[in-house]
Structure formats: C-alpha cells, structure tokens
TrEMBL record:
Keywords on record: Oxidoreductase
UniProt keyword annotation of Oxidoreductase present: yes
Annotated Gene3D superfamilies: NAD(P)-binding Rossmann-like Domain
EC number(s) given by UniProt: 1.3.1.104
Similarity comment: family membership: Belongs to the short-chain dehydrogenases/reductases (SDR) family.
Molecular function GO labels: enoyl-[acyl-carrier-protein] reductase (NADPH) activity
Domain of life: Bacteria
Family matches, as SUPFAM superfamilies: NAD(P)-binding Rossmann-fold domains
Protein name: Enoyl-[acyl-carrier protein] reductase III
InterPro entries assigned to the protein according to its UniProt record, in alphabetical order: NAD(P)-bd_dom_sf, SDR_fam
Amino acid sequence: MERKVALVTGSSRGIGRLTAIELAKRGYNLVVHYARSRKDADQTVEEIQSHGVEAISVKANLNDEEKIDQLFEAIHERYGRLDVLVNNAASGVLKPSMELTSNHWDWTMNVNAKALLLCAQKAVPLMEKNGQGYIVSLSSLGSIRTLENYTAVGVSKAAVESLTRYLAVELAQKNIRVNAVSGGVVDTDALKHFPNRDEILESSVKNTPAGRIVEPHDLTSTIMFLISDEASMICGQTIIVDGGISLTM
C-alpha cells in the first residue's frame, strides 16, 4: 500500500520536529517545512529517513501566499497526496498592546492564523483523493487567558481555535477531521524569547496540579491520538494539555 503523507509546518526543530519524527515512526512519509535553518531541516530529514520512510524538506515563508503555493506544489509533485497537516509553525511579536504596530500585528496574524486557512485550502484537494484527512493545529493558553506581552500571539491563537471550528464543520462531510491542541508552558526554544522565562517556568511548576510542566511528548502524543481512528468523532475541538494549570489561573 502507498504510504500516507504528512506535512508538519515548522518541523525543523522543537515540537514540530518531534511530531514529524513520531509520524515517521508510524510509517508516514514526511514533508519537513522550515523558514530559516536548512541545516536543522536536513538533520530532521535524516532522522526521519532512519525510520525507513521518505522525507523532503521545503523552505517557505508562511507570511507569503506565493511561498505557500510553492510548498504545496512540491508536495503534489513528490507524493501526489496528503493525509495529515499539522499546523505547528508560529511566530509573533512579544510586546504590550500599546506598543504593537500594524506590522507586528499583520506578521503575527498572517503566520499564525492566515497560514492555517491558506494551507487548509491547499491541503484539502490532496486529502480528498484519499477519502479522508486530518488537520491539527497547535495553540496555547494565551488564546483564552491573558499573558504578559502576549497580545498579538494570544489573539492569533484565538483565531486559530475559531478557524478550527469553522473548518471542522465545513470539512466533516469530506471525512476530514479538524482539531487543535493547546499546551501549557513547555520549555522549548520559543520560550527563550520571553524576558521572564525563568519566572514563567518556576510559576508553572509550582501551580500545575499535575506536579510538572508540560513536556513536548505530551503534545505529540495528543496529536497522534487526534489523527487516529479512535478520535474519529472528535471534531472542531481544542484539547487543552496543561496538567490542569488553566483550572487554577
């Protein structure tokens, strides 16, 4: 049987990379998307291939619709199908609301929210060929809670969760399931951009009922569940994986 194919945006490092590798372990051919580091993407491709599947890396600026078109053209040319889209790539400006410029806002919304819409529009025709598909986006608690300097990113993640619901209803009849995973604090490279990183980590450990902060594998495990047959009736939901901290905030 022809192998299934998955695209994970922002998969040259961090949670995206771990997600791509986990998919490879489950027999998927991979499209490794990256925006900057070709070296990191190539290393991810090598590790994926060590699991006996195929992988290609494609560079694309998700703020540019033409680049998104080129990304999906590469997928069509190489594989001719797509079964899973994990919308993981994210960017954003960490500033108070009163200091945000139009450029800050547009960049954050385009990469984090608009790209989901454009990628879904390109992914669906490739998924329809197979009779089913899965789209899973990564969100964060900033979509439903206020976090310091997180205005632009938080609003963009709220848009991702809302768009997830709309896409889920529209695409359900095509047997395409759309959901999101919202994580609590995860100690990844992205957190290093927060000036109060140490304070965030200390507070999270102290206040998480489960007794520890969220690990990357907690999120990847949830993504794997959402693209499994066992989750076939979960539609348009945002699954919060935070050890219970949002219940105490």
